[in-house]
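Case study: Central glycolytic genes regulator.
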Amino acid sequence: MEELVKLLQQIAPEIALTIENRYTILRNIYFNQPIGRRALSSILSLSERQLRTEVKRLEEQGLVKISSKGMELTNTGENIIFRLEHFIYHLRGLNPIAQSIRQLFNCGYVSIVPGDSDEDETIKMQLGKEAAQYLKKTINNGDIVAVTGGTTMAQIPRAMENISSLKDITVVPGRGGLGEKVEIESNTIAAELAKKLKAQYKLLYIPDNLSPETMESVINEPGIREILKTVRSADILLHGIGGAEEIGQRRGLSEKEIAEISKKGAVAEAFGFYFNKDGKVVHTTTSVGLTIADLKNIRIVIAIAGGANKAPAIQAFLRYHSPTVLITDEGAARKLLELEGGRDDEQKDA
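Here is what the predicted structure looks like once written out:
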């Protein structure tokens, strides 16, 4: 595939660009359908005239259908974008980047989604889809699956197809809530994922930002202790990686507290631990559920995070812990290599 892509780029670069542009249009329709032309042109930063020309061609090819509700993909259109994913991956030169990241951080497997979720919200949906597909391939009967919260994590159950062939699966939240939007809380994500897997689930109705004294009292309740025992027996963990300031705000910390954490050099947060750029823990907060120490006991740890702005946080966490799987996007991956010494320039020239 890589050789074919290189040949195409050499002999007809305009064709490669057209394929990539139309793939982007199809992908955005898929994740937002039905969608009007004006809304789609805004998302893609294309003029309505430019978009109208491309959509007309895609409609003529039987890939898009247009109705009063808006634009939708036909079955052929959906099949095309799934079959094109591998081609676009190589067209963007992402395979050598994935291999470099895997070797630099000793990850078992690295998956990179083309695009940057900082610039295109549908990339988060694609990240969720990649995580759902990897989970489907690796989950076994009897597994306990733990998930954390966040906007990208919320895409996983939405992308997961209904599976009825698995037995004795339990889905649990990996940590307590942060008191934010209910749809991105770990409890909600766990319950929705369990429905798709036809699994049982257990919820953890404890805020993650209680005082140490209150937290100690709550986690010693028999019912809570039993749920935490299940959480810490997880076989598979799907978790996000947050920027230190971002998570501080989500936790409801004051500006003064966030400034103090930043002063310590914190750039990333996971499971109540804040890391500096070298991957060293510089601050901890009360947190219920899984801890950093539990990761070594989990069979498969899948870290999911994207966006170029998230690269410093991803770098910091990966320097502390090498997950079984890293699922990220092109924006974060290229920036990550840049932070590691500008190796992406070499990949672009390859």
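For the exam, be able to explain this: Residues 2-89 form a domain with the Arc Repressor Mutant, subunit A fold (CATH 1.10.10.10).
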